[in-house]
Amino acid sequence: MNLNEIAIHLDDCALKVKTTPSLRSETAFTLDEAYQIQELSVQQREQRGEKRVGVKLGFTSKEKMRQMGVNHLIWGVITDAMHVKNGGEIVLSHFNHPRIEPEIAFITKEVIDAPLTMENALEKISAICPAMEVIDSRYEKFKFTLEDVVADNTSSAAFVLGDEVGVNTDISDCAVKMYENDEIVQQGSTAALLGHPIQCVVQVSELLAKKGQALPAGSIILAGAATAAHAMQTGCTYKTEIETIGSVNLSSQAAK
Ligand code: OOG
Ligand code: MG
Fold first, then answer.
1. Which of 43, 154, 178, 232 fits as disulfide partner to 58, beta carbons 3.0 to 4.6 Å?
2. Distance from residue 100's CA to the centre of ligand 2 (Å)
3. One-character DSSP codes across 40-88
4. Is 58 close to ligand 1, i.e. is its CB under 6 Å away?
5. Closest-approaching ligand to the CA atom of 144
């Protein structure tokens, strides 16, 4: 398969809720080529009318790296079709094997097109929100190489944002708790995100600069999970509470 055929195959798996064996074993594409495949697969979504609304980072915490055995920061594209409203519903039959992650999100105030530092990154941000990401691998058993997962748009599937707080909120070390109904299923701290979550904005700025790309004002940046991801079950409410930042929730339903 050439890069475009791989992109169409992965997009088809997402659309039809199917899995595929690792593609890397068949075609030895590089990490750069994996990002080209990702871009081509996002273009498939755009052809169906989806709009880009921001980017997401993956493997920004040690817990996530440990869980998946991938030791490298990655990024992907999120679209409007992936956005679920706070308190909304995830239909599990739309996904292969969805997992949920507690995250935080940054909303950008100005275009980002050059490298930022820890000191000036917040100037580009208008608000911060508690968030959760639903990831779903198009690979069998959620097993992939670094190149595979990048090609698969870093397992992007859905996300939910809670109410915004101001940029002066201290987000450096806030306790994170994710609940399935009344039970805590994951917990950690925002400090797990590259040492300080604002570092996630810095990383995005560097990735953009390296690619000569710009992220428009009003975009969402999902900073990555501070804990391992949790496999979603039917008929549950998932809530993430982040100290001083706030909470966000959604529920799961088998089918519609
Ligand atoms: C890749 C996506 C990782 C995160 O928050 O670290 C990610 C995966 O684990 O399937 O979204
Ligand atoms: Mg994530």
1. 154
2. 8
3. HHHHHHHHTT--EEEEEEE--SHHHHHHHT--S-EEEEEEGGGEE-TT-
4. yes
5. 1
